[in-house]
Amino acid sequence: MRLSRAGNNCHGIQGRNRPLIEIDGGLRGRGSRAYIHSGQDNDARGSSLAATATSTLSTTEGPIDNKPGYDRIAVLGGGISGLATAYYLAKLLPPEAKIDIYEASDRLGGWVDSKKIQVPGGEVVFEHGPRTLRPHTHAGMIVVELIRELGLEDELLVVTKNSESARNRFIYYPDRLVKMPGPGQDFYDMAWTVLTEDVFTQFWQAFGEPWRRPRDNSLEDESVGSFLARRFGTSHIGDNIVSAVLHGIYAGDINKLSAKSLLPSLWHEEKRFGSLIRGAAFKASRNMKILQVRDAVLDLTIKNQLAGAPIQQTLEDASVYTFKNGMETLTKALASYLRAMKNVQIKTGHPINSVKYMAETDRIKISTGKNLPIKPYAHVISTISSQALAGLTDVPGQFAKSLQTSLQAIPSVTVMVVNLFYKQEGLAPNGFGYLIPRSINFDQNPECALGVVFDSDSTQGQDTVSGTKLTVMLGGHWWDSFDTYPTTEEGEKMARRVLERHLHITESPLAVNVSLHKDCIPQYTVGHTQRMQKANTDLHRAFGGRLAVTGNSYNGVGLNDCVRNAAQLVGQMLFFDAKPEAMPNAKPNATRRPLGNLKRISGLEFKGSDYWMVLEREDGTEYIRSGQ
């Protein structure tokens, strides 16, 4: 590795002379060059460390070198983030390292919860949490690699890109299902939909976007709704379409959620090009991608590693995928792996009461509801929600208020999930399902539904009996002001009323399951990245870098995001020395830290930092150039 500088102008992209890191060897493909640019001159080294963390985890074989000073590590939370974190620790640390997982409930998996329900003639799988995964995102590639390592390839169920479930996705507006334009659809059909359906009202104003002024440099963040209205000259696109999409992902309010956090690429490209449409045209004309650093590194590493692997061939044409026995297949496999490790202890039914940093010994002491003596830990990794962690931290008075304010500033929403199975087939249209925008009239959605999934189409192959399987999602930000939530009986009635009004389903279901998930989806509201930067500082001050955080409170709410962030956190802790010349252009062992010298991090060091790469293809060569 060597430090170098780029020129002032690369194919029309303006950039000042800034320090770059040129990576040779294993991080690039044959006959290619790669440049990583940092948005801040004095952080070039740090950005490269963050970027390569995940790819290093995937390419390293065996545990780190044995050296004196082995320590104990505690992982708080046994959901997907906690299990993935413990998995990467157990995989890469020597067997002398002691890893304890604390889970308050009596089961592992967190929000990932699949249940087999007996019905006349067979059984059906009800998903109470996430139900499908996308394989071709950058975070998705990490999960695909994890599935391969766990030997779960034969458990996959794939929904192909040309299936009706992938091609038919709907929005309910104003009183009917409207099919969204998408791949594989005839151009004239798409044009007719856009021109005639009310949901696309004022869509034509988007064509004036290139001539609208970019945001002022002083604007650090704004809501997704404000950002879209400012760029496209109308609130209708956000209210009618994007709000529905965000209901499906975040169950959140488009006028509160952060544009910088949820739409980082668009936020960046407005600053870079002055216009989203001009930016898209510029990239298309040069076969270019602009990615955050860690995504660009994955483009150059793990994507090539997976190329040709059987699992990649299985998922090559996949839109989404799931597992034959439900998503819990993944968390159960992780738990089985960890239980087989002699240096890992899984402690279910152990709620944490406090987390305290002891400056005199430079260790962290935790206490649980079991009131048993626990030896202090060298490092604690919290994967529980930020608000739950805020209530557990026991820190000196001068740090307490600041840290708790930072962690409590991430609100969450509550969602009720209602699974229904009907013996009759074909009760719902062929497709994935539909989402409901914020702009719909109250009389069309008094139950505060967020959307409906047509599970019979979206997860074919799980059930042993034919019929119609649906999932109704209720609540989210609509319930922010609620002091109490609907009961199980009320939830079933509400879901059935939604299906009767929207899909004209009057039949009685054979099986119903109602799950209330309190505070299940964190909300990245305006200013989230700034608050995470403050939380990073507060965690370091209060815990000396001994307490790190990951999980869906911070940098992505999806399962793919949680696994990817767990991998990156472990990579940052275990593999990187302070010297830039020790990056993995040499042997992987050169970058490994002895266990007694794990890097002190909070897990939030790079949240909100503007690290970007530009990938261009010219005559088979890939370049990563400057970008902020």
Can you offer a commentary on this structure?
The protein has 628 residues and is α+β, with helices and mostly antiparallel strands. Among the domains are: 55-117 and 324-409 and 524-580, FAD/NAD(P)-binding domain, CATH 3.50.50.60; 164-182 and 411-522, Protoporphyrinogen oxidase, mitochondrial, domain 2 (Polyamine Oxidase, Chain A, domain 2), CATH 3.90.660.20; 595-627, no CATH class. It is 32% helix and 22% strand. The protein has 20 helices and 27 strands. The protein has a seven-stranded mixed sheet. The chain has a five-stranded parallel sheet with strand order 15-7-6-18-25. The protein has a three-stranded antiparallel sheet with strand order 1-4-5, covered by helices on one side. α2 (80-92) links the parallel β6 and β7 (98-103). α3 (138-150) crosses α20 and α16 packs antiparallel against α19 (528-543). The protein is globular. It catalyses: protoporphyrinogen IX + 3 O2 = protoporphyrin IX + 3 H2O2. One of its GO terms (molecular function) is oxygen-dependent protoporphyrinogen oxidase activity. It holds the Pfam family Amino_oxidase.
Q: What is the helix content? A: 25-40%
* CATH domain topology of the domain at 55-117 and 324-409 and 524-580: FAD/NAD(P)-binding domain
- Radius of gyration, in angstroms, nearest whole number: 25 Å
Distance between the termini: 22 Å
Q: Count of helices?
A: 20
Low-confidence stretches: 1-52, 65-69, 577-591
CATH class of the domain at 55-117 and 324-409 and 524-580: Alpha Beta
Q: Going by CATH, what is the homologous superfamily of the domain at 55-117 and 324-409 and 524-580? A: FAD/NAD(P)-binding domain
Mean pLDDT: 85
Shape: globular
State which percent range the strand residues make up: 15-25%
Helix/strand/pairing category: alpha+beta
